[in-house]
Amino acid sequence: MNIALSLSSSSSSSSLASPLLFFSCRWPSPPPCSATVSRLTNPFILHAITNQATSSVTADLSVSVIGGNAGGNEQTLLYLLRRQKTEEAWNLYTQLPHLPSPACLSRLVSQLSYQNTHLGLKRAQAILTRLRHERQLHRLDANSLGLLTVSATKSGQLPYAVSLINSMLRSGYLPHVKAWSAVLSRLASSPDDGPTQALKLFNSITRRVRRFSDPAMVAGFRPDTAAFNNVLNACANLGDVKMFLQLFEEMPDFGVEPDILTYNVMIKFCARCGRKDLLVFVLERAIEKGIAPCITTVLSLVAAYVGFGDLDIAEKMVQAMREGRRDICKILREANLEDSDEDDGIDNYKESSGGQDEVDLFQKLLPNFIQANNSEPPLLPKAFSPNSRMYTTLMKGYMNQGRVTDTVRMLEAMRHQDDSASHPDHITYTTVVSAFVKAGAMDRACQVLAEMTRIGVPANRITYNILLKGYCQQLQVEKAKELLREMSDDVKIQPDVVSYNTLIDGCIQVDDNAGALALFNEMRTKGILPTKISYTTLMKAFVLSGQPKLANKVFDEMIKDPRVKVDLIAWNMLVEGYCRMGLVEEAKKIILRMKENGFYPDVATYGSLANGIALARKPGEALLLWKEVKERCEVKKVGGNSDSNSPPLAPLKPDDGLLDTLADICVRAAFFRKALEIVACMEENGIAPNKTKYKRIYVEMHSRMFTSKHASQARQDRRRERKRAAEAFKFWLGLPNSYYESEWQLDPNDWDDYGVYSV
């Protein structure tokens, strides 16, 4: 196995000293080499030679390889980079007719990335783009690529950073843990499939690290505690109990010990999984391991109970901290006992979650949970005083429950606190504004904004976005637009994509689709990039105005945008657009594209299609749709799709809207057997069928069915089965029906008898 030289700058001379964070690099396979570059110009070798005199000789060798009279420029560029004169070095680089040496390129990219500015990042990316076009990417070392990755991550260019890490892995480089852990941190908290990508990235890197038998050789690349905390946070966001436990147990394999942040993530994880009863045992486990809790630990606990809507416990915790008490564990244990008196504890959890398997996993994660009754709750190592963040978290709980008076009372109490750390800040005031907006009291919300200005607590973009949303919810779009102008012109806070998305949605609510389109274009003109919500909101405008083709054009733009990942909501919006116009065939083509792109139709998709079928009066299509819906409903019963060649079907839980629409179509079309199947499905899913409506439809449309006395015998024989189905349906409705001797039951093999032509 080939191991590259270390890129550490620890042995460098004083001339090479810089504030840059240098990463080391190892690769499990030799890096690709260009035929035009000598081994002497290998970037790893050049970067490893740290002696001043030796570096000059090496630079001369690289110049001789490139050729020409550029030796002076090369030496000047290297001199500027060593003196941290990055701007002059960049200007000289842009004037060179050829590529500089690998050492110069790597240093230049590193220093531009380290600036952490938009311009520096743009220039570093330009160098990378040029090298890619000229097939010279091997000139950059892992140190420069790692710094570029960190810079792109900090600037919000997460997809670019992920692509850099993946490119390094494909090329055989192992990025430094600081670089890939930074990407992991952002992925873990990203929407859509960000947490899933974080898990894949972590597994990809650790799989390569395990190939080295000597851990010292990959010391800078192995996951540290911060990296594990990031990937555990991804598991917490996914609610994946099994993977969380597996990763937690892998920490000792890499010589990593959990810290208090690990247990803070575990608190979040238990809250996400609905295990309120385990929160106290996470705290006790940390204390048992000798890991001192921090103020964030206590804040996480308060936030967890607020998230559960259990404000009584949250208030008790805050009050205990105000009194300087350290028996928080005792308070939480007593709360667990009170909750256990109201339900069946673990047995109740088994019924509402993954069952015994998940219970066993949690017991492995928190073994102290089992011996809880045999031990006294420990005391905190020290007492904590509540701060403004904690009070604000409690205020959010009041706001979520509509307790506006308590929210305002908490604000007043914070103002009179002796401790300055407990005084209200802009987040506190924004929470109060949000409470008034949620209650529909826009005047009082604006008064809080005015008070913030008076006392010198500056409102931020989030504050104004909440007010914009409040005006739009009350259909006061003109006031929202006026506030947007005040926000940008008077307060000098530039609106973001959330501001425009809120206004666009407000225009749609008042049927101002032209205004929505104008705001979308204005947003793009100002250089504000649209998000997934921007596209789907604009699609909604065209859908509601009966212009599905324009919605389709917006959808196509969304697909072309590399920053945006199309989700099921966007697909459903497009399906809804065509179904609203009764264009069933076009909608079915969209659904087919959905499936080809790996998206399963959900209840909303099928509901839109059912409404489109009803509008188009195509009952035969309803039968085909019901067949697919029934298959999806049966997936959870049989455990998957029996056809191994087709992709597995995701289970479906139908709602009353979908089933009621399908039943309505079938009753109107006299598909009584299928109507009874749908009714049975409704009852299985706890949905009460609307018998009154179906009875009215039957009486109005089918009361004289099968009453003709002049039908031929052949015709009477053909309709005999349908007549039995009609009698069974009448029996279910409670209408007078003929007595039938044999018991009527649903036969799944009778699909062909009730095809499209059975009307």
TrEMBL record:
At1g68980-like TPR repeats domain span: 74-204
Top-level taxon of origin: Eukaryota
Keyword tRNA-binding attached: no
Annotated keywords: Repeat
Positions annotated as PPR repeat: 224-258, 259-293, 387-421, 425-459, 460-490, 496-530, 531-561, 567-601
Record bears the keyword Glycoprotein: no
Pfam families the record matches: PPR (PF01535), PPR_2 (PF13041), TPR_At1g68980 (PF25245)
InterPro entries, sorted: At1g68980-like_TPR, PPR_rpt, TPR-like_helical_dom_sf
Entries under PANTHER family matching the protein: BNAC05G43320D PROTEIN (PTHR46598), PENTACOTRIPEPTIDE-REPEAT REGION OF PRORP DOMAIN-CONTAINING PROTEIN (PTHR46598:SF5)
Family affiliation: Belongs to the PPR family. P subfamily.
Protein name: At1g68980-like TPR repeats domain-containing protein
Organism of origin: Rhizophora mucronata
